[in-house]
Every structure is written in C-alpha cells, then in structure tokens.
Amino acid sequence: MGDRFVVIPVPKREEESPHAVDEDISPVEEDGGVSPAGGRQHEQSGGKRSEESTREDGIPRESSPFISNADTEQDSYYDGKNMALFEEEMDSNPMVSSLLNKLANYTNLTQGVVEHEEAENEEGAKRKTVKNPQMGTFIGVYLPCMQNILGVILFLRLTWIVGTAGVLETFAIVFMCCSCTMLTAISMSAIATNGVVPAGGSYYMISRSLGPEFGGAVGLCFYLGTTFAGSMYILGTIEIFLTYIVPNAAIFAAEKKEDAAEAMLNNMRIYGTCCLLFMALVVFVGVKYVNKLALVFLSCVVLSILATYAGVIKTVIEPPDFPVCLLGNRSLENHDFDKCLKTEVFGNATVSTELWKLFCDSPFLNASCDEYFASNNVSEIQGIPGLLSGVISDNLWSNYGPTGMLVEKKGQPSLPAQDASRDGYLPYVFNDIATSFMLLVGIYFPSVTGIMAGSNRSGDLRDAQRSIPTGTILAIATTSFIYMSCVVLFGACIEGVVLRDKFGDSVKRNLVIGTLAWPSPWVIVIGSFFSCCGAGLQSLTGAPRLLQAIARDGIVPFLQVFGHGKANGEPTWALLLTAGICEIGILIASLDAVAPILSMFFLMCYLFVNLACAVQTLLRTPNWRPRFKFYHWTLSFLGMSLCLSLMFISSWYYALVAMLIAGCIYKYIEYRGAEKEWGDGIRGLSLNAARYALIRLEEAPPHTKNWRPQLLVLLNLDAELGVKHRRLLSFTTQLKAGKGLTIIGSVLEGTYMSKAAEAKRSEQSAMLAEKTKGFCHVVASSNLRDGFSHLIQTAGLGGMKHNSVLMAWPTSWKHTQDSVSRRNFIETVRETTAAHQALLVAKNVDGFPGNQERLEGTIDVWWIVHDGGLLMLLPFLLRQHKVWRKCKMRLFTVAQLDDNSIQMKKDLQMFLYQLRLDAEVEVVEMHERDISAFTYEKTLVMEQRSQMLKQMQLSRTEREREIQSIADESRSSIKRKNRLGNELQLPLDHTRQGEVAEPASAQLIHDRNTKSHATLNDKAGPVPDRVHMTWTKEKLIGERNRQREANVGVRDLFNMKPNQSNVRRMHTAVELNKAIGSKSRGAQLVLLNMPGPPKNKGGDENYMEFLEVLMEGLPRVLLVRGSGREVITIYS
User: Fold this and answer.
1) What is the spatial distance between Cα 219 and Cα 674, in angstroms, rounded to a whole number?
2) Where exactly are the transmembrane stretches of this chain (predicted)?
3) Cα–Cα distance between 753 and 745 in angstroms, integer?
4) Going by DSSP bridges, is the β-strand pair 711-715/323-327 parallel, antiparallel, or unpaired?
5) Where are the beta strands (DSSP E) in 358-442?
6) How far apart are alpha carbons 270 and 1100 in whole angstroms?
7) Is the pLDDT of residue 122 over 80?
8) With b meaning 16 or more CB within 10 Å and e meaning fewer, what string describes 332-357?
9) Which of 49, 647, 681, 753 has a beta carbon 3.0–4.6 Å from 615's, enabling a disulfide?
C-alpha cells in the first residue's frame, strides 16, 4: 500500500515570509506517486527539507544536507516512510539520493572564487549560483600550455645553444627535456583522471597522492620554481627592451668595453625592479586584466613562431642580407662601424675607416695597430646563408669554451698573434660565460616547463578528466616538434659565428632569431617582448595562489598568514612574498644564472609527480582507477630517473640545495605534525612495507643481538578515564633508546561502545604530553583481570608483539577491603611468566623523573639471579636518554658463605668488559645469620592477617551464597503451599515462644547481608526491611553450627605458629632490604630481581608482603623479571 505525502516546492528567496509556503502546495499523489510539479523537487532534495521550512512556532529552521538531529523533526519526518528502518543511521550515512544530489550540484570553482563564496557564507549571505565551467580542451588546456611552454628561452637563447652545443648535442638536450616532460605528462594525466582534481592542479595532485609532508615540500618547491620563473621572464623582458628595442635607455653606460657587462647587470636590476613593481600592481588591482590580455600575449607567441617558419621558407628563395664582418677568422661587433674594410679609396686618396680607428692608435695609415689586425685581412660573409647553403655541416659539432673565448669561424685562414692581452678591449665577439653541455641543459630546461598550466585550470574545464590528458600531451607534442625543428632549421640556415653570438653584436645588435624572421626582425622582437611580459604576469598571478592553497591547507604552520587576502579572495600577502622572492632573482640580473635555479625546482616537482604515479600503480590500491589508461609504472620510473639525472647534469650543487630545501620542509612538516589525512600513496607504501616486514619477522624468532624491549605498558584509568600514572609514560620514553615497539594498553570495565573512544583520546593526550611514541590499545571487559589478560595475549601483531610488560606497583593492595588489585597483579605476573615475557614493575612511579629533568648519581643494579641479562641491559638503555645520561651504573651481587667474593668480583668485571658495559662492581657478602625475633614476629603478623582476610572473605561468600539459596527455597515453598497446602512451614511472624530466637537470628543474617549483596549487583532493586521467608529446621541448625565454627577460627588466630618456609622467605627479604638500603639508599634508581609468585595460590597474600618488605624504604625501585631467554651477548 502506497504512502501519502506532499511535496512542497519552496522558492529560495531571502525575503520570503515563513508562511508563504502554504500558497504553493502541490497536488497530493496516491500510491507513492509524485506530481509533475513536485517530483523533481523531491528527487533533488534527496530526503532533506528545504532551507526555508518552518517550525510550528513560525521561526525558520536551518537545514543541513542530511537529516536533522532533532528527535521531534525525525519523528515527524519519518512517519510513514519506507526508510524508517535506517532512520538512526541517516545522520552519518545519508540516503543514496541525497548523496547523488550533492555530487550533481558539485561546482568546481576557480581559486579566489571559492574563498569569496566562503566569505559570503560566513557573513550569512546565501551561496550564489555559479555557471558551470564551459572551457574545452583547446581553449582550456592546449593554448595555455602552449603559451607557457613557448617563451623566453626560445627567442633569446635557443640559437646560442645550437651554435654552442652543435645541432646534434642540442637535439639531444631538447629530446631529453621533452621526453622528461612527456613522461611527466603521462603520469600527471593518470593522477588527474583518478578522480576530481579541484583548482590547484599540480600541488593538489602531489599532496593528495604522496601525503602532506611530500605535498608541502614539493608544493613549496613548485611555488619557488614558479616565482623564479617570473624573475626569468622579467629579466628576458628587460634584456629585449635594453638590447634590441631602446638601447639608449640604459641608465648605466660603460665607458670602456670591459665594464659593459657590469653596467648591463645594473641596468637589468633597476629596470627589472621597476617592471616587477608594475606587474605586481597590475596583479593586485585585478587578475581579470591579466586574463583579458592572455589572448594578446598568446597571439604574439604564435605570430613570432609563424614569422620564423616563414623566414626559413624565404631563405630558400632569397636569403636575407645580414653581412658579418670577420677579421681573420674572428667575428667582429659591427655596431660601431658601417663598412667591413680597413681602408677605402676616396678619389685618389686612401683613407682609414671606422674599423681602423678601433684597432689603431690614430686614423693615419702609419699608425701603430694591433698585431692581429695588422697580420690578418678582413672579410665579409652572409650571416643567413639559407636553408640550402649546406652550413648545417659546420654547425653539427659543439664549440664549448671558457669565459672570454673569441667566436671564430672554423676553416677561415688566420695568422695568430703573439700578444693576446688586449683582445678583451677590442670589438671582438666573445663568450660572456664559460659554456658546457651541463650548463646548457640547465639553461634550456625552463623552456619546456609550463605543462601544468592545464591542470592548474582544472576548475574551469568542462570535462577535466578528458581535457587535461589530451590537451597537455598534444601541447607537449606540438612544442617538442617546434623545438626540434627549430634546432635543425637554425643549424641549417644561420652561420655558426652568428649562432654563437648571444646578443647579435655581429649583426648590428639584431635578435639572432629575428634575422631569420619574415617580413621583419621587429616581428620577433615585439612578439617576444610581449610574450615575456605575459609569461611574467602569469607567474605573478599563479604563484601567490599556489602559496595561498598551501597555506590554507594548514600543513606548514608558519605560512598560515599567507592564506589571507582581500575580501574577494585575492592573495595579497602571498603576492607580497612572491614579489620579494622574485626580486632576489632580479638582483641576480642574469638570465643564464636564474634559469638553472628554477630548473631545479621544476625538476623536483616533476620527479615527485612521476613518483606519485609509480607508487600508486605498484601498490595497486583499490582507489587507483585512472580513466587515462596509457600509463605504466615503468614509464613513471623512467621519468623520475630522467628528472633526477637532469638535476645533477645541469648543476649538482643546485640539485643538492633543492633537495636540502625540500628535505628541511619535509622534516619540519613531519616534526610539527601534519594532521591532514588525504589517503596518500606513502601511507599505502608504509602498509605494504609493514606487511612485508611482519611476514619476514614471523619466519624466525629474533636473535639475541636483535633483541630490544618491546613494551606493553599497562595503564590504570581513573573514574574520569584519565591516566593515573603519567610518569609511567615518561619512563617508557626514556627506555625507548632501544627503538622498540611501544603499546599503551588500558582496560575498561563495561562495554566497548560507551567508553573506548574517550579512553583512547585520554591515552593519546597523555602520550603526546609525555612525548611517547607508540600505539594505543583499549580493551573493554567485564572485569580488569580478564581485560589485562586479553591485552597480554593479543596485543601486537606477528613479529611485532611485545616481549616485555611495564606496569606500576599496586600501592593500594593493603588498604582495599577486597583483594582485586592483589589478585590482578599476581595473575599478571603469572601470565607474563607463562607467555615468556619480561615484566617490569615500577614502585613509587609518580616519583620517577619527567622528560625535562636531568639526574646525576647512580643507577644501582642488584643482580641476585640470572634470568636473561635484562637487568644489565636496562641501565644501558636508560643512559642513552638525556634524563639519565649523567648517571653512573653500579652492579651489586650477593655472595654466600661458600662463595669466593674476590674471584666473583674479578669474573663479574671481566663479564661486563666483554659485554661492553661500564659499571662499578661490588660483591655484597650475606652470611648465614640467626632469624631475628623481628622477622619471626613480622611473619606471624603477616600470616594472621592473611588468615583473617581469608576467613572474612569465606564468611562473606558463604553468607551471600546462603541468602541466595534461602530466597530460591522460599519461592519454591510458596509454590508448593499453593498447590498442596500440606508441607510444614514456619513463618517468621507466627512462631512459638520457644522458637523466636532462631528465626530472629536468621532474619538478622538476612538484613545484615542484603546491603552487601546489593553493592555487588548495581542493578539490584530496593530491599524491604523485613522479608517473609520459609525455613526448615535443618537449615537453621546448620547456620548456627557454621557461626560457632567461625568464632572458634577467630580464637585460633591468636594461638597459631608461623610457617617455617614463610619465616625463611621473610628473613631473606629483610636481610636483602637491609643490604640494599645500606648501599643504595641515595641511588637515583634501584633495579632488582623480582622473585616469582608461589605456585600454590594460597600464598598470594604472603608474596605481596615479601615484595613490600624487599622494597621498603627505597625511593625509586624497578622490579625486573626476565623472560628466561638471553637478551644480551658478549659476541659481536
């Protein structure tokens, strides 16, 4: 039978009155149907109420995406619902329809918009409807990647790299770098298609795949790389401006040629700082202006590349005219002269040229000239001979050299000069830096970065999981083709001396790639200028948002201030920091010096992207299901290896610095405690490694040399579930020099569901306060004894089980009325012995030192019996900790009458020497003495007390058992009376005069014990003052005889004699206590062999008394009971 329900569509208007709901009630549908008007609303709500729904009092009620917690609301909401069976789970487990509705309404906003929306929510405003992202693959991924990849290095340095390294080696450099980015793009595509990637792109992927530590480290490296990329683009912009557009705008002008380089660096610093401030101001005012100009900048890049290819084609038809002047085989800077001639004829007179004046001391023909100038002729060659000239054969091989090496044309006749000291002052073209294959790799690599541009825009994409792989891989393929083709075309079209001329001095200060362009070199100059401007603005826009994302994740505490910004979410503080770091790169002022720095950071980022994909693939985690299928862990591993190789190839010291920075950030995040849990791959890797290690550990028991204390610490909790003895955790930390396992266990009386979580939180807070690293284990049990037994049996896993138990001495065992604490302690001793585990019992544990204290004195070891050597190992472990480091170890042992104490001391010293332990050795002689009256009396008192406790316990148990049997008998008697009415009964209220005393005494017994019985059972109801019972005569006589026997037993306590075995044990305890007190009264800690419990459980009370006497008067004592196996060895 269908349910009747009403669907109420509520318009989401803020000004709507609460009572306006009644006007839009939709028709009521029968049999569970839904009206057309209301059906969609009900489907989309997924079982939740509208935000405008009202309570009975007319006050609007706020709604949550799931079911409200109010009981009254749940009751009214679930009336007649088919899902009432699951209503109690709806708070934590929403209905499927509600979940699907949330997924359908998921809006992936760009960074900045999200913060703006959150700010409005905090102010009470409603979330505004945001249009779904509509960018496709071409506009959203392909073009941004193209714009970021093609940039400053292509226009300013690629021709120089081709001329210096040669076509073959440059092709190898380009191939390596493009292969690195392609492999990284494949790994990135797999990660990006393994679920929704919010705005944040690469940082989000790395952090969620490798965890907060790696995410923070690599995210900051990526941020620094993006920031230094901004410096590089700004320096490229200023270099184009000052070198090729307005050379006369230089503030610092060099009077001498040797000062030109320094003057240029100072000009770069001044103009670069001004450019940085202007760009930062543009970004601060509004990112929308940067985005509007993005298409203009991209158009400049595309037009420049098209002009280059057009120029190559034109060289086949008509090569451009860019003559290069050579003196001998040396290339000359020709911006100070017009004619490549030493002299020229005007009429009938021969006169010197401007070139003559540069090499000679006067313009006259008889002037003193440079030796090389006088010995060699000048010649002129074409700088762009053309595609079909065959010049590529001269450009195949490398021409590396030191700083100041002259650019020379191979195969050109030349007579060397004897004196080359003045070459640096003459207008030759020479290397401004020392060149090598490794340096060129570092300079070139930034030209292939920018592959993350698509993933950074993932919030704007219509289908990010499809667009990111396709667009990124196509962009890398396109740019790789452009770079490789440019390498070959540059080598085939341009003369080698021009290629090696970094700043175009030999072609009248023209941009070298511009000389190849058609229709004019200014197309490349203007295009590259705006391209570098756009790339710099993009870097200054993206880097602060990346830093803001890291800061808002909260994984690096000192960066949290940079998570704040303007009201609309713009990262103002992050922009200031980015501009400051960017200024550092500008002060370096050399594009060639900045490029390797950002190469390191980008390579570090790409390395971890590949690592993330490889780890996820190898672990085969169930959540690793990328839609992009063309990946393999070998490709990711190859990409990771290639990134690492390129880091050390380009600059090994920069690589080490980048790794050091990443490592410091990693350790800082780990130290400060990254509380984020993102289901990262490193956690999965840890689980796999732990499983493998556990399986290996299970194969065989550990060798003595590998033994270390793996502690199970038994903690007691108070009524508020707080830890009673926190210093037990401090002592555990101090013992952790062995780096073993630590399990903190506690037992709750009751059910697991009610108290376990709170108890675990209490333990973890105590462990955090005492800096104890380990695992919490809470067991709920009906009583403490069973709970501790379960802990001892089940704590740990496989080979990582505890081998030692640490607990506090039960100080209240004498004072408690019952014997629960005593029995728990002795049973724990028995169970650890049966499980072959060591037992450490700390007495006066609250007086043990905290982790901030520093002790000086001695740690005294009283070695009475040998049970594995744990007594000697523990002081060594303690002294590794700073609390006990200044304490010395003393070892005492006991010699009997027949022992040779001198020889014992020598043997013991040799044994300690072989064990590599430093300790003072002393042998204490304990001769046979008569048992003193004190010992005899102490033993007697102990046994009397023990016997009395037994009788009291027995009497109470018997009485309680008797009361129960009386109640059972009473019930059965009443039933028999109702049936037969012929059984002899003796009601307590209708007895004969002679029998009054007996039932009265029985009634007294019942009244006296009802209270004690009720305390044992918490749920026992109220007991009436008098209870009518049915008694038999035999029962009353038996009860009277038992009372008479009990009275006789009490009288016998004062006539008993102590057991001789107990007297001897007490004598030993008293004598040992005297010896320990005389030698170790001032020791910081006394370690002592713990005697074993009696095999007969009847002597448990006496055992506790013996231990009390043994430790009497000592401030800090650690009783040690070994496991029976050797834990220390003299062998290496």
Assistant:
1) 14
2) 136-158, 170-193, 214-235, 268-287, 294-313, 433-453, 473-499, 519-537, 573-591, 597-619, 631-655
3) 17
4) unpaired
5) 378-382
6) 89
7) no
8) bbbeebeebbbeeeeeeeeebbebbe
9) 681
Amino acid in position 137: T
Task: Read off the amino acid at residue 837.
Answer: Q
Q: What is the largest CA-CA distance in the chain?
A: 172
Instruction: Determine the average pLDDT of the residues in 585-601.
Output: 91
Q: Is residue 525 helix, strand or coil?
A: helix
3-state secondary structure of 260: helix
Joined tokens for residue 1112:
């009497």
- Number of CB atoms found within 10 A of residue 314's CB: 18
Helix, strand, or coil (residue 334): coil
User: What values do phi and psi take at 503, rounded to 5?
Assistant: -105, 10
In whole angstroms, what is the distance from residue 1022 CA to residue 230 CA? 83
- Eight-state DSSP code of residue 869: S
Q: Which residues, in sequence order, are CB contacts of 505 under 8 Å at separation 6+? A: 333, 334, 335, 429
- Tokens at 329, concatenated: 């085989």
Q: Say which DSSP state 172 is in.
A: H
Sign of CA dihedral 290, 296, 299, 305: negative
**What confidence score (pLDDT) does residue 1017 get?**
40
Provide the mean pLDDT of the chain.
Answer: 77
Say which amino acid occupies 916.
R
Q: What's the DSSP call for residue 506? A: G
- Give the DSSP per-residue string, 855-915: -EEEEEEEE-S-SSSHHHHHHHHHTTSTTTTEEEEEEEEEE-TTS-HHHHHHHHHHHHHHT
Entry field: residues in the chain: 1132
Q: How far apart are the C-alpha atoms of 136 and 578, rounded to whole Å?
A: 30
The SS3 call for residue 1047 is: helix
| Distance separating alpha carbons of residues 1122 and 867, to the nearest angstrom | 5
Residue with tokens 């109690």: 88
Query: What's phi and psi for 859, nearest 5 deg?
Result: -110, 110
Tell me, rounded to whole angstroms, the distance of Cα 162 from its chain centroid.
44
Cα gap 174→180, rounded to integer Å: 10
pLDDT value of residue 682:
64
Distances (CA, A) of 341 to 139, 320, 490, 698, 1102: 54, 21, 28, 89, 119
3-state DSSP assignment of residue 749: strand
CA 591 to chain centre: 35
Question: 64 pLDDT exceeds 60?
Answer: no
The three-class DSSP label of residue 902 is: helix
* Side-chain-side CA neighbours of residue 465 (13 Å): 13
Q: What is the pLDDT of residues 715-774, one digit of tens each?
A: 888 777 778 888 888 898 888 755 678 888 888 887 777 666 777 777 777 777 777 788
Q: Which two tokens stand for residue 433?
A: 């830096």
Q: Of the candidates 118, 106, 96, 7, which has an alpha carbon nearest to the alpha carbon of residue 46?
A: 96
Ranges of H-type helices in 780-868: 784-794, 820-834
Q: For 994, which DSSP code?
A: G
- Residue 231 is given by DSSP the state H
Distance CA 832, CA 829 (A): 5
pLDDT at 943: 64
What lies within 8 Å, CB to CB, of 638 at 6+ separation is 183
The CA distance from 410 to 322, in Å, is 19
DSSP state for residue 26 in the 8-state scheme: P
What is the arithmetic mean of pLDDT over 1107-1125? 87
Per-residue burial over 519-553, b = 16 or more CB atoms within 10 Å of its CB, e = otherwise: eebebbbbbbbbbbbbbbbbbbbbbbbbbbbbbbb
Paired sense of beta strands 349-352 and 804-808, if any: unpaired
Residue 754 near residue 835 (C-beta atoms within 8 A): no
d(CA 494, CA 440) in angstroms, rounded, equals 19
Q: Does residue 1095 have a pLDDT over 80? A: no
Q: How much is the pLDDT for 169?
A: 95
CA 151 distance to own-chain centroid:
36
Q: Cα–Cα distance between 845 and 770 in angstroms, integer?
A: 14
- Determine the 3-state secondary structure of 741 from DSSP: coil
Residue in 441, 430, 402, 403 with CA at minimum distance from that of residue 169: 441
Whether the bond into 9 is cis, omega within 30 of 0: no
